[in-house]
Design goal:
Length: 167
């Protein structure tokens, strides 16, 4: 079964899974350069329910949020990499700057975001709570050597410092 679905196919699949009594967990993000923080975050998110759905920002959406030099990895490659992870059940790509419409479309039981978000600032959180669901914040993973949060921007900065722009 293909794990990368259109929004319409995802909506139908989630409806079926809910009918089977499955708990749907949703998260979203750019996931530009996959790193240990992403993987641990997704593992924890999956542990909160039965099915983990990931909304992936499209290339245009990432550029609008992160600037013209991002994403580093194109959306189809990011989607394939994420779908290859055992803990991710479904991936869908969204073009909007925020996943609000997508969240409202699938109405997950649990909405998950990383520790750089506060519960009241999570986009779609009010909608999920209004429907009887909940919002869960998962703390960020830190680098063991520096205790700095692991991030894609941090990975890019380390590459640039190490290679000085010349690979």
């Amino acid at each position: 079964m293909n794990k990368i679905l259109s929004r319409e196919d995802l909506r139908e699949r989630v409806r079926q899974l809910k009918g089977e009594g499955k708990q749907i967990v949703f998260t979203n993000g750019c996931f530009d350069i996959l790193h240990i923080g992403h993987v641990r975050y997704l593992e924890e998110a999956k542990g909160l329910g039965d099915i983990l759905v990931l909304g992936l920002n499209s290339d245009a959406s990432v550029r609008s949020i992160k600037g013209p030099l991002r994403p580093v990895v194109p959306q189809d490659e990011r989607a394939y990499i994420l779908a290859s992870l055992e803990v991710v059940d479904y991936v869908t790509i969204f073009d909007e700057e925020t996943p609000l419409t997508l969240i409202e479309d699938i109405a997950p039981h649990i909405l998950v975001k990383g520790g750089d978000w506060s519960e009241d600032a999570v986009i779609g959180g009010k909608s999920v709570i209004k429907q009887g669901g909940r919002v869960v914040i998962i703390p960020q993973v830190s680098e063991s050597a520096t205790d700095n949060p692991v991030s894609t921007t941090g990975v890019i900065d380390r590459i640039l410092r190490t290679y000085g722009g010349g690979l």
